């Protein structure tokens, strides 16, 4: 099997001491590629540098809603210049997060729209983040997102109506280790069977959202653990892991416009 972790943050300082070991375990698990996702100016720059240094990695650039209050036109220009690098295959993660409100709603919405525009200008697919926006994220997407620029709703954990709305907009759906957690993933396991086969991705969101059974031994997630997401997804969807892994690889490469590897 050949797996693609479609969303991780291994530029995080949590990997400062053992990144080479993380890469080794990734290879041993059959994870042949990973998307390192930018969340601000600094992390986007590091993600691009890591992608340039290792053929298995790709990068996205963007400002996460948590960091929206620190965004500026200069930052957007900087990210647009970074995006000229051929290893940059997406813009994100961007969106709305009204859970902890690290940035005011007005700032989140302003820079969400501005980054949608920047990605559209560059014809880059989008990586979306949504949490507790009470319908505002969907409302803004419907008015601002041009779906010729493809996108993925990262770490989907919404309801049936939200899932349908995202699919109707042409979006892909990113599934994390939440799927593997007995209680927290129960509703998600009911929904994943209704996602069209050509619109689903798997991801770790490492170092966050460690799947079972690894979460019983470590708090830090890593790309190798995306295999646990695959195995649970295959079981829930009644598919063989081998068949599903091939489909997921093709989906991820199609979304991010990555050629044969």
Overall pLDDT, averaged? 97
Number of strands: 8
Sheet with the most strands? 8 strands, parallel
CATH superfamily: Metal-dependent hydrolases
Structure description:
With 261 residues, this protein is an alpha/beta fold. It has one domain (3-255): Metal-dependent hydrolases (TIM Barrel, Alpha-Beta Barrel). It contains nine helices and eight strands. It has an eight-stranded parallel β-sheet with strand order 1-2-3-4-5-6-7-8. Strand 1, helix 1 (19-28) and strand 2 form a beta-alpha-beta unit.
Task: Give the secondary structure arrangement, pairings included.
Blueprint lengths: L2 E6 L10 H10 L2 E7 L3 H13 L3 E5 L11 H10 L5 E10 L7 H18 L3 E6 L4 H9 L6 E3 L6 H9 L3 E4 L10 H6 L8 E3 L23 H11 L4 H15 L6
Parallel strand pairs: 1-2, 2-3, 3-4, 4-5, 5-6, 6-7, 7-8
Identify the notable features of this structure and list them briefly.
TIM Barrel, globular, 17% strand, single chain, 39% helix, 9 helices, alpha/beta, 8-stranded parallel β-sheet, 261 residues, 8 strands
The gist of it:
By secondary structure, this protein is of the alpha/beta class. The protein is 39% helix and 17% strand.
